[in-house]
Amino acid sequence: MIDVDPAALGIEFGGGAAIGGLMGFAAKKIAKLVAVIVGVQLMVFRYLESQGILIVDWNRLSAGLLETQARAQDVDVHWIQSILSTLSIGAGFTGGLLIGFKRG
Q1: Residues 6+ apart with CB under 8 A from 23
Q2: I need a surface site. Which of 16, 20, 27, 36 has the fewest CB within 10 A?
Q3: What's the Cα-to-Cα distance from 21 to each of 29, 49, 76, 82, rounded to whole Å?
Q4: Which carries the bigger pLDDT value, residue 29 or residue 77?
Q5: Cβ-defined contacts of 13-17 (< 8 Å, 24+)
């Protein structure tokens, strides 16, 4: 017979949820900061191009962004989800990460 301590499982689940929530919140804030930095950089490029200081190949630049997006969508993360869902800490972490990312 398996001896399961509900208090220990609750602490593991709650701890994982708290850590996951903090990481999700931080990940969203960092993603927003990166988006702002990239946006400002593109505005600077556009301004310098309009002043004749810089020449930007926008087709080549956007092709690189589209290629990166395609690679990001092809990443298989199902193995990560299956590992985390089997552990009580992982289940709490996953839930907390999703909530933290949504609230962030």
Answers
A1: 93, 96, 97, 100
A2: 36
A3: 12, 42, 23, 19
A4: 29
A5: 13/88, 13/89, 13/91, 13/92, 14/92, 15/89, 15/92, 16/88, 16/89, 16/90, 16/91, 16/92, 16/93, 16/94, 16/96, 17/92, 17/93, 17/95, 17/96, 17/99
The pair of structure tokens assigned to 44 is 């600077």
pTM of the complete model: 0.57
CB atoms near residue 39 (< 10 Å): 10
